[in-house]
Amino acid sequence: MTTPRLVADQLFRAAVRGADPYAATLAALKGQSLGARTWVVAVGKGAIPMARAALDALGAGQRSAQGGIVITSESPTQLGPLTILTGDHPVPGDGSLAAAQGLADVVSLVRPGDDVLILVSGGASSLMAAPVEGVSFAAMLALFQGLHRAGTPIDVMNAFRKRVMRWGAGRLAMALTTARVTCLIASDVIGDDPASIASGPCTGDRWRAGDLVALAQSHNLWPHVPDEVRRLLDAILSGDVAETPKPGTEALAHVQSRVILGNRDALEGIAGAGAELEIAVRIAPTPVTGRARSTGEAIAHAAVTARGREVNHPQTAPCRLALVWGGETTVSLAGGSHGTGGRAQELALAAARTLHEAGARGRGITILSAGTDGRDGPTDAAGAIIDATTWSRIALAGVDPQRALDAHDAYPALDAVGALLRTGMTGTNVNDVVIALVD
Predict the structure, then answer these.
(1) Whether residues 308 and 344 fall in one domain
(2) Are residues 9 and 89 in the same domain?
(3) Cβ–Cβ < 8 Å for 418, 386
(4) Domain span at residue 368?
(5) Average pLDDT value for residue range 122-149
(6) How many domains does the chain have?
(7) What does the buried/exposed string (b/e) look like for 179-207 if buried means 16 or more CB atoms within 10 Å of the residue's CB?
(8) What is the pTM of this model?
């Protein structure tokens, strides 16, 4: 029997297939002219399939990689001449430091005129996180965690993060100025700005030190900026430390960068699967951003409204309509302790409350909220699938759903009623998807 949960799961898996980094990388390298000495550097949650595609593309041209490195969150595997290192995610650690140094070791082997394929995917910032000179690892980590707890907008967080990272803000490309660099990017950033993805290792940094000072003041972030980072900004402003390379600079003329995959590909995967199931699919024209809780409430309200409208659909379709959103929300942890969960789970729990409060109008609606990488926050779940009964079933299971929502403790509440979605790591990372099925 086909249930709404099974349909939602099927559509989510179609989203993951639509954002396949192996296929996207192989297609991007078709016809690419590469020299006899080609290095492969792959970093992020999609690093292994992207690196495998690069090796296959080189092999199709009767060539092999000179060498290279893969920095990933997965267990090491064999990938020809490539060294594989496991970094730490979502919180940088010793593995990240070792990975950053491993990357430096590979960079030192590149000769003038060599080709370097740099394959970037979501999660790379944490996996190869190491600080610039003058900033300790502890200070770098304190900056990341402080900005995250404060609910800092992602673009502002990225501006600070790349400033203090050894390989961020175009510094990787600057270390390869005598090579020909091709950077292929699987985007985990809304808007697909290469400068923001993985802290922009091959892209000029539009933010100047003075801009960061202004951002810290306007967003009240100074309490979350360690002294070492403040001193770094002061040194740049005084001219004692060089600015990061800027967009359009001649120093980055040896780099060709392009985004080959993003959230839109995942949404198109859902649309294709929905068409096969004869479900009317409506993709929201703008990404979801902002707080997870308020976004979940808004999505549930939209589904309730849609349920009251007539939608022509074949009688054989498993549901009338699928409303689909892509994007990435945030959870602010400022102001005290918190529980276990992630943005997708918090969105789902908030949506469950709204459907519960809608009474009869909320029935027949099922909502999936999940990260395409298969991991939502520091948990083993990709997200959750909820309906109008989820909220009351959590209460019957002996868990206070309102307390869980207020304490950012969605994971145990949703787990208590089997609402979590566990897929394992998917090998891609192109933000989140939300699917509302309307019966």
Answers:
(1) yes
(2) no
(3) no
(4) 4-13+264-438
(5) 94
(6) 2
(7) bbbbbbbbbbbbebbbbbbbbbbbbbbbb
(8) 0.91
